[in-house]
Write a structure and sequence with these properties.
heterodimer; A: about 280 residues; mainly alpha; MetI-like fold; two-stranded antiparallel ribbon; 2 strands; about 5% strand; B: about 300 residues; disordered N terminus
C-alpha cells in the first residue's frame, strides 16, 4: 500500500467519507430534529440553521407536554425505567447462571454436556414468534402477562446462550495447569474458580455481558407481545409515539435519541470488548 | 480442542461423587432456567395441527397436517415465502458486498481507520425497531430530509415505504444501515488476522493486485465470509422489528414476511393454527440453516484455536 498513487488515495478518502456519511447521517439528523420545534422541522427546504431548544427533552423527562390544545401526560420515563430494569436484571441473572455453565462446558467432557450446550445455543436461532405466541397464552393463564418476572425470564433466554458461548471460548483459552497448580497448593475447587478462573476470563465475561445488555436493550418483540404500556421498554414505547395523538415530531426524535444513547455510549466506551465479543461470538465461539 | 483433554485430575480432597457431579451442578441451573421454553415450542407444533380460531372456538379440532396442506394452494403463503426469501437474499448479498468493501478500505490499522471502524459500530448498536423509526422520520412525505434531497436531483414524490414499488427497497436500506457494520467488523477482524507471508511473497514477485485479491485474500477470508453470511441469513429471514416498525407488513401484502404474517394471523385474524404452522415452517428453515452454520462455525473455531 506504500506505493499507491495519490489518485488512489483520493478515491479511498472519498469512499470512506461516503461510507461515514451514510452510516452517521441518520443519527446526526435525528439529533438535530430533537432540538427543534414542529415549525422548524416542517420547514421546506429543511435547514440546519435553527435555534436549538430543549423543550422536547424536558417534556419527556417531566412527563408533561403542554400544547395549545391542553396538557398531555407522557410516560416515557417509565419506558426508560423498564428498559433499564429488564436489561440489567436479565443480564445479571444470565451471568450468574451462565458463567458457571460456560466453565463446565469448557473444562469437563461430560455426558450430555455438548447436547445441553447445543440445545441452549439453538434457542438463539429459533424464530421468536414461534414460542412467543403460545407463550402469550400460557402467560395469560399463569398471570405472568405484563409482569417484570415473566419478561425477565423471556429476556434471559436470549442473554444466557450468548454469555454461555462467548465465555466458554475464553475459559477454553485459559490453561488448566494454572488452576491445577492452585488446587494442589491446597485450595478448594470453589476458591480456585472464583480466585483464578473468573479473573482470568474477565475480559470475556465483560464482553459477553456488554453484548447481552445491548441485545436485551434493543429487543422489541418480547415486550410488544407480552407487555402493555406500563411495562414496555423504550423500543416499544417510542414506536407507540408515532400513532399517539398530540405528540410532536421533535418529541419522537428526542425519545429516539434518549433511547439509543445508553447503547451507543456503552459501545463507544467499551468498543474493544464489544468488537472482541462480536468476533468471539460469531467466529471463535 | 484443548477442552477435551483437560478434565480435572482429582486433587486430594474431592470425592469421586463430587467430581462426577460437578459439571452437572454447574450447568443444570442454566439449563433448567431455559428448558421451560420447550413447552411453548411443542405447544406451537401442536397448535399448527389444529383448526384453531380464537373467534370461532366451537370449530376447534385436531386436523393433522391440514394447515400445511392448505399452504400449497394458498397464494398468500407463497407471497410470504417469496417476500421473505427476496428480503433475506437482498439484504445478505448487499451487506456482504458493502461490508467487504468497507473492511478492505479500513484494513490498514491507522488512527483514522480505527476511529472510523468504531463510529461504524453505532448503527449496529441502535435497536432495529428504533432505526426503522429514525428512517421513517427521514422519509416522511411532509418533512423527510431524504425525500427533500431526492427532489434536488429531480425525483419528486418518492414515497419510500408507503409505495408498494419502493417499500421493499426502503426496508432493505434500513436493514443495510443497521447490519452492514456487523459483517464489516467480522471481515475486518478476519482480514487483519491473515498471515502476512503470502502477501509479501506476492508483492516481491510483482503479482497484480487483482490477482492477489481473488487468489489469496478472498480464499483465505472465505471462512469468515461464510460465517458472517450464514449468521446474517439466519437473522434476516426472521426479520420482524424493522418491517413491523416501518410498515407493519404493508402497503398491502408487500412486506408480509414470515414473522410479520404470523403476528397478524395471530392477533388480527386470530387464526392460531395458521400462525403456528407458518412459524413451524420458518423454524424448519432456520434449523436447517443453523446446522450448516454451526458446522462451519466449529470448523472456523478449530482453526482459530489451532492458530494459537
Amino acid at each position: 500500500m506504500d506505493h499507491s498513487s495519490s489518485l488512489e488515495k483520493l478515491l479511498r478518502s472519498v469512499a470512506i467519507t461516503l461510507v461515514l456519511v451514510f452510516f452517521l447521517f441518520p443519527i446526526v439528523w435525528i439529533f438535530l430534529m430533537s432540538l427543534q420545534t414542529n415549525e422548524t422541522i416542517l420547514r421546506i427546504p429543511p435547514s440546519i440553521a435553527f435555534t436549538p431548544i430543549i423543550d422536547n427533552y424536558t417534556a419527556l423527562i417531566t412527563g408533561q407536554l403542554r400544547t395549545a390544545a391542553g396538557s398531555l401526560q407522557l410516560n416515557f420515563m417509565q419506558n426508560m425505567f423498564n428498559s433499564v430494569l429488564l436489561s440489567v436484571c436479565s443480564v445479571a441473572l444470565s451471568l450468574v447462571l451462565g458463567v458457571p455453565a460456560a466453565y463446565a462446558f469448557a473444562r469437563f467432557k461430560f455426558r450430555l454436556g455438548e447436547d445441553i450446550a447445543f440445545t441452549l445455543l439453538s434457542f438463539r436461532f429459533a424464530p421468536a414468534l414461534l414460542v412467543l405466541l403460545p407463550l402469550s397464552l400460557y402467560f395469560k393463564t399463569l398471570g405472568l402477562t405484563n409482569t417484570y418476572i415473566g419478561l425477565i425470564w423471556v429476556y434471559q433466554l436470549i442473554c444466557l446462550p450468548l454469555i454461555l458461548w462467548i465465555v466458554r471460548g475464553y475459559f477454553e483459552d485459559i490453561s488448566p495447569d494454572i488452576e491445577h497448580a492452585y488446587r494442589i497448593a491446597g485450595n478448594s475447587w470453589w476458591r480456585t474458580f472464583t480466585r483464578i478462573s473468573i479473573p482470568l476470563a474477565k475480559p470475556g465475561i465483560a464482553a459477553a455481558g456488554l453484548l447481552a445488555f445491548i441485545f436485551a436493550w434493543n429487543n422489541f418483540v418480547f415486550a410488544l407481545i407480552l407487555a402493555s404500556a406500563d411495562k414496555q421498554p423504550v423500543t416499544v414505547g417510542a414506536l407507540a409515539f408515532v400513532t399517539a395523538s398530540g405528540i410532536q415530531y421533535g418529541q419522537i426524535a428526542a425519545a429516539i435519541i434518549i433511547s439509543i444513547t445508553p447503547t451507543l455510549a456503552l459501545a463507544l466506551y467499551a468498543q474493544r470488548y464489544l468488537v472482541e465479543g462480536l468476533s468471539m461470538g460469531a467466529v471463535k465461539g | 480442542m484443548t477442552a477435551a483433554a483437560t478434565e480435572m485430575r482429582t486433587p486430594v480432597k474431592q470425592s469421586r461423587f463430587m467430581r462426577r457431579a460437578l459439571p452437572y451442578i454447574l450447568s443444570l441451573p442454566a439449563l433448567l432456567m431455559c428448558i421451560g421454553i420447550l413447552i411453548p415450542f411443542f405447544t406451537a407444533v401442536y397448535y399448527s395441527m389444529l383448526r384453531y380460531r380464537m373467534n370461532l372456538p366451537a370449530m376447534k379440532g385436531f386436523i393433522w397436517f391440514q394447515n400445511y396442506v392448505n399452504f400449497f394452494t394458498d397464494p398468500k403463503f407463497w407471497n410470504t415465502v417469496y417476500i421473505s426469501l427476496t428480503y433475506a437474499f437482498l439484504t445478505v448479498v448487499l451487506e456482504l458486498l458493502l461490508g467487504l468493501g468497507i473492511a478492505l478500505l479500513l484494513q490498514r490499522p491507522s488512527r483514522f481507520n480505527n476511529i472510523a471502524s468504531i463510529l461504524l459500530l453505532l448503527p449496529l448498536m441502535t435497536a432495529p425497531a428504533l432505526a426503522a423509526l429514525m428512517w421513517k422520520l427521514m422519509t416522511h412525505p411532509d418533512f423527510g430530509v431524504l425525500s427533500y434531497l431526492l427532489t434536488l436531483v429531480g425525483i419528486h414524490d418518492f414515497k419510500w415505504a408507503s409505495n408498494p414499488d419502493t417499500a421493499l427497497f426502503t426496508v432493505v436500506l434500513v436493514d443495510m444501515w443497521v447490519y452492514t457494520p456487523f459483517i464489516m467488523i467480522l471481515l475486518l477482524a478476519g482480514l487483519r488476522s491473515l498471515p502476512k507471508a503470502p502477501f509479501e511473497a506476492a508483492a516481491l514477485d510483482g503479482v497484480p493486485r487483482s490477482f492477489v485479491f481473488f487468489r489469496i485474500t478472498l480464499p483465505m477470508l472465505m471462512p469468515y465470509i461464510i460465517t458472517a453470511t450464514l449468521f446474517r441469513l439466519l437473522d434476516s429471514i426472521q426479520q420482524f422489528d424493522i418491517i413491523y416498525a416501518m410498515t407493519q407488513g404493508g402497503p398491502g401484502d408487500k412486506l408480509l414476511v414470515f414473522q410479520v404474517q404470523a403476528y397478524l394471523d395471530f392477533f388480527q385474524a386470530t387464526n392460531v393454527g395458521r400462525s403456528a404452522a407458518l412459524m413451524v415452517i420458518l423454524w424448519a428453515i432456520t434449523y436447517a440453516l443453523s446446522n450448516v452454520f454451526i458446522k462451519q462455525w466449529l470448523k472456523l473455531r478449530e482453526r482459530a484455536h489451532g492458530a494459537h
